[in-house]
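name: query_chain
kind: protein
chains: 1
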Amino acid sequence: MEETTRKQIVLGILAHVDSGKTTLSEAMLYRAGAIRKLGRVDHKDAFLDTDALEKARGITIFSKQALLTAGRTDITLLDTPGHVDFSTETERTLQVLDYAVLVVSATDGVQSHTETLWRLLRRYRVPTFVFVNKTDLPGLRREELLAQLNRRLGEGFVDFGAAQPARDEALALCDEQLMEKQLEAGQLTDADIVPAVARRHVFPCWFGAALRLDGVDEFLAGLDRFTRPAPALDAFGARVFKVSQDEQGARLTWLRVTGGELKVKAQLTGEVDGTPWAEKANQLRLYSGAKYTLAERIGPGQVCAVTGLTQARPGEGLGAERDSDLPVLEPVLSYQVLLPEGADVHAALGQLHRLEEEEPQLHVVWNETLGEIHVQLMGEVQLEVLRSLLAQRFGLNVKFGPGGILYKETITEPMEGVGHYEPLRHYAEVHLLLEPLPRGSGLQFAADCREEVLDKNWQRLVLTHLEEKQHVGVLTGAPLTDMKITLIAGRAHLKHTEGGDFRQATYRAVRQGLMLAKCQLLEPWYAFRLEVPAENIGRAMTDIQRMEGSFDPPESGEDTAVLTGFAPVAAMRSYPMEVVSYTRGRGRVSLTLDGYRPCHNAQEVIEASGYEPEHDLDNPADSVFCAHGAGFVVPWSEVRSHMHVESGWGKAKPARPEAPAAPQRRAAAYRATLEEDAELLKIFERTYGPIKRDPLAAFRPVQKRERPDFAAEQWTLAPEYLLVDGYNIIFAWDELNALAKESLDIARHKLMDILCNYQGYQKCNLILVFDAYRVPGSPGSIEQYHNIHVVYTKEAETADMFIEHVTHEIGKNRRVRVATSDGMEQIIILGHGALRVSARMFHEEVQNVEKQIRQLVQGEV
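structure:
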């Protein structure tokens, strides 16, 4: 066969424990000529179970690699753990696969962990082949197994060992394109079927007995015929999926090259916790079982172990490859590590962290207050493996305390959380909307806040702070899940806000919202399959009910009965030993994590935890405000009465009244503005201290005072002065903002024309202010444009600085209003005795004036 026609794929093999997965791997390697002797798991000489722990327990604990060839296809085979305790290892491996083989036992059919594996394959969209093993033993018939696969896992499972007409007929029902090809040509070719398999519309099935080498040759031929290589990136890219160490203790970083080429001694770069790293790939090892060969270069579709990389982590993307998604499966049990007397706790912590890099399902937690190490795991088998690894690697003989359940918390109703952080010379306020999500959604973050309310840079910072921390609930201090947190409002100070201020305000907003919301405690649940002698089924059903579980109607056979259902992990984790006891070794139960559900004994758990959210100093819900030059703490329950921003969430919009006559409308507008200004005045005084002069001085005639850099005689005295922040208004009004995207100059002149009409009708003295740095060649100038004044500020002077300055002067003896979308500017001008008009209110005023002008014109006509 010509070299150019060869293809390279990465194939993973998955199964429920004891389905014969490693036996099938062994048979494939043997029939492909990759190994000369056929090993067996029960003889402890399987080619891929190389670790002493695996040989002792007879299960696969660590994912392994082997190389074989089927026809013109070079296959990198990754054998993954089958036990539920090591599911996270399997999940990491899925993210580098081109195809997967799901092994199903003919004696057991689809089991609970099979369904978990199928959900993971569907999540990562891995095209899948099925090998139904152990067909030489008593069990379900071929038709029954196919029906069960299609019923339990979904449609698309087709027997590829059937005669071609029957196979093609079944394939045509799985995919519309195959249906069209079948109707046109009368039969399907391999070229027709390959894309349908890649699209996950078809899942080819073969039946056999791997231990007897039955059906293995046909299966290998099918892998050659119905697979295609994955498209490669143009630039170099690779994905890390595993970290381990060799027999000499050297760190191995396992990766799959997804594009370009990786050469030995090439420098690779990445980032760990925000810190960049750069290291050389000293060796490129192609492993097959325990042995390896060294390669000079690795191309797309190949998997290798790299030495020399000490910083890369599982899930990290290198080069042009993106990082992997976070694992769906998480530990559900927690144990305290009990060190031998005299052991160095910090040295032990470092050793556990080294194992944590290698084991994605192991989480190590250091409780600094109590000086305790806790490990979070999937189950007790993993606990035994961890104990053995610590003894083998580091000579550390540890014990573990009683295991505890890892609970989570969520909310059951939407709630707004407010966080304010304002010690002296700091300022940030954040409003977050907390919403419940469906079970299994995790935490999601978003922003729904206008830029004139909070600048985009501050919004991005808030989202960063939301994502950087594991937020905990207020019932037991457990991690939050199944929630969406959305930024809906906020405020920064022009001079005093720093990045750390938004971190504090964001964290406090989350906690304040949780304190107000209805919270719910969640616990992990198992999906179980319980097989017991027929005479014990009554006892089994009673046990499940006692454990607050649920089950489907039992399936009864001649001698045994099978019960499937769901139950809390807390109640069921010790049940397998109980089953062995009351069935005298004839019963067995398989457990698979099914995610989190409402806790069956929530009140009992909450009381036992003793958690007091108001005393959690690491997660405060209270806010910090400032008055009289000093910060003070406001309890979470009173924050809403002190907050500076009104998000509007939870408040119904009032019905729009009929338009009143012009004088009434203006009076109503002023009354509304005065009421809002009174509220803002309180905010101003709480923030900056009491105003030294009477804020109503603007309405009383006082002696005029001049200032050197502002000649008040430029302005004709008028009943009212209106200062308009030009660019703020342009970007706040939708129609002008759209024009500004095409031409800022056109938008500016459009606003000037609109305000000329407005001024002519209102007879106010209108001053329109623009930042001069946006307008070439006109800094520091004041122009008369028809009947309004247009000011272009000086260099290094912004429009809000000019408006604040002018308001301070003319607000002493004239009635002044300022129209702007800048919230901080609105507060500051209150201190100078001016009225403020938001961009939205001013837009409504202008529209009303234009409407009245049209009515007048039509009346005259």
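note: The first strand starts at residue 7 and ends at 15.
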